[in-house]
Amino acid sequence: MTPAPIAVALDAPDLETAAHWASLVTPHVTTVKVGLELYLRYGPDVIASVRGASGVRVFLDLKLHDIPNTVAGAARAVARLKPAILTVHAAGGPAMIRAAVEAMPNTQIAAVTLLTSLSEADLEQVGVNGPSEDAVRRLSALAVAAGAQALVCSPREVAAVRAEVGPGITLITPGVRPVGAASQDQARVATPEQALADGADLLVIGRPITGSADPGATAAGIAAALRRVSAATGHQV
């Protein structure tokens, strides 16, 4: 059965656990995500460990945000690991995004718009005025113009971003929570079915899968639910 467009966030306490989770979910999902904490703790070795024999796509979520020259150097440093996706912050600006794109021609550079942990009140405190959707649309257009091939936005904004950037850009949505799952530190959330129906291409799901008693079975269940949405809406899974 075709794996579902899910990136399982491997926010594990150690390398062995991350690799174990990856082995359990890879029959059911297309991608596993390595975040900043795991990468800083174990370095490049973590990529080979979670990729394993399956060759699953690895999403390296480092959210690079610095001057263009530094981001280009950082991107070149991880290019040899061959991640399928690498994140940078859209707020770093066009030159920074372009530097990452040029440094990693074989990796999809995904620009993070606004973190899903930020509420409207949080955004106002850091100087983002107006609705979050407007800011996300602005950052999305900026990033795509600079060469980003993918965008990271919350499920609440995915329909608006799709309308802004068209069909050729991959939309990645964290803050995805199955019905009944706690929102934890995510503020702008939606169910996997809703995010997919609204136009997301890759759903980031972490603790609802990895924190369950059987991560493999949980991933399989969510994948099956997404296939039902696909059959009903025509959205390819």
Overview of the structural elements:
The protein is α/β, with parallel strands linked by helices. Helices cover 44% and strands 18% of the residues. It has eleven helices and eight strands. The protein has helices spanning 15-25, 36-42, 45-51, 68-79, 94-103, 120-125, 132-145, 158-165, 192-197, 207-210, 215-233; strands at residues 4-9, 29-35, 57-64, 85-89, 108-112, 150-152, 170-173, 202-205. The chain has an eight-stranded parallel β-barrel with strand order 1-2-3-4-5-6-7-8, surrounded by seven helices. Helix 1 (15-25) packs parallel to helix 3 (45-51), helix 1 crosses helix 11 (215-233) and helix 4 (68-79) runs parallel beside helix 5 (94-103). It starts with a strand and ends with a helix.
The shape, in one word, is: globular
The neighbouring-strand order within the major sheet is 1-2-3-4-5-6-7-8
Largest sheet: 8 strands, parallel, barrel
The averaged pLDDT comes out at 90
- Uncertain runs are none
Q: Please provide the count of β strands.
A: 8
Q: Please give the alpha-carbon distance between the first and last residues.
A: 11 Å
Tally of helical segments = 11
Beta-strand residue percentage: 15-25%
